[in-house]
Design a protein that fits this description.
Layout: H1 8-13, H2 19-25, H3 28-42, H4 51-63, H5 75-96, E1 98-102, E2 109-112, E3 118-121, E4 126-130, E5 138-148, E6 155-158, E7 163-166, E8 170-176, E9 179-186, E10 188-193, E11 196-201, E12 204-209, E13 212-217, E14 230-237, H6 238-249, E15 253-254, E16 263-269, H7 273-281, E17 287-290, E18 296-299
Parallel strand pairs: 5-6, 15-18
Antiparallel strand pairs: 1-4, 2-3, 3-5, 4-5, 5-8, 6-7, 7-10, 8-9, 9-12, 10-11, 12-13, 14-16, 17-18
């Protein structure tokens, strides 16, 4: 068969011309290349498609109910959410979260603040301060505490009855019901209650009670006596004295209402309730008995 020069390759692949005839049309190098192509093609087997099977598969796929696709978050989205949670927790912990210290009946504790200031907390008292206290030295007090403040930015003690502001000093604060008292043992403090502001220096004190203000000075004491196990009072209403007794011994005290307004000057120990009651009652010619329930009854 005579090979057509335009179709010799397809004729050779389909077997219409022989190898010899193709060699006459191409170089020996091209013939070897063509032969390798032919051998490779002969290794492929293409089966006839099953049209009916393929048609049925298409029909089944079209009639199958659509399944809702599950949204997939990329790894970066997960990391972004996690980073936001960590950031929010850090902001809350540092700027919002606070520390609370509470003392029980007859117990005291000392707190070392982040600026190295110290707070001694008397019985049945509460101290609240934030995690960023070192940067804003403000705390809240309920009850009684003695402060030894390191020099630095303003140090503020907030109570429901008033506010104390200092720079570096030692002072004692009592904030209980309507009884608010501040004693300065070293340095200078600024005491604010409503529109009234008082500046105290070493040995000076101020007391706000029952809409009255009282000031006095005593430079002999270097710290409050309750730190060494004894409560001391200077012209203090008996109702507050009995409150302090209850805080120390967890023993309820009942007394006639008019006795609560009597002023008391003296001390009582934190180590023995019977000795403490004698120290309170004998100077005022009062009597006391204890019921089976444990409650103390005060009479004249």
């Amino acid at each position: 068969m005579k090979a057509n020069k335009d179709t010799y390759l397809s004729d050779w692949l389909s077997g219409q011309i022989t190898d010899e005839e193709l060699k006459e049309l191409v170089s020996e190098e091209d013939f070897e290349a063509y032969r390798k192509v032919k051998n490779t093609l002969e290794g492929f087997q293409i089966e006839d498609p099953d049209l009916e099977q393929n048609f049925n598969a298409v029909i089944q796929k079209r009639n199958a109910p659509n399944k809702p696709s599950t949204p997939v978050l990329s790894l970066w989205k997960y990391l972004t959410v996690a980073a936001c949670l960590v950031l929010c927790f850090g902001i809350y912990h540092f700027f919002i979260a606070s520390n609370t210290v509470v003392t029980d009946f007859g117990t005291t504790t000392t707190v070392l603040l982040s600026d190295n200031s110290k707070v001694a907390l008397n019985s049945k008292s509460k101290l609240i301060y934030s995690n960023y206290f070192e940067y804003k030295r403000t705390l809240q007090l309920e009850g009684e505490a003695f402060f030894e403040v390191q020099k630095g930015s303003p140090f503020i003690v907030e109570t429901t009855l008033g506010k104390v502001r200092v720079l570096g000093t030692k002072f004692n604060v009592i904030s209980f019901r309507d009884f608010f008292e501040v004693v300065c043992y070293e340095g200078k403090v600024k005491v604010t209650k409503g529109p009234k502001t008082t500046i105290l220096t070493h040995g000076e004190s101020v007391r706000f009670y029952d809409d009255t203000i009282e000031n006095w000075a005593d430079a002999t004491s270097r710290k409050p006596s309750w730190l060494t196990g004894e409560s001391a009072f200077r012209n203090v209403p008996m109702e507050y004295v009995f409150d302090q007794f209850e805080n120390q011994y967890h023993i309820a005290v009942s007394y006639p209402k008019h006795i609560g307004n009597v002023k008391f000057t003296g001390t009582f120990t934190h180590n023995n309730p019977d000795v403490a009651l004698q120290a309170i009652c004998i100077p005022l010619h009062l009597k006391y008995t204890q019921e089976d329930s444990g409650k103390i009854l005060i009479t004249e």
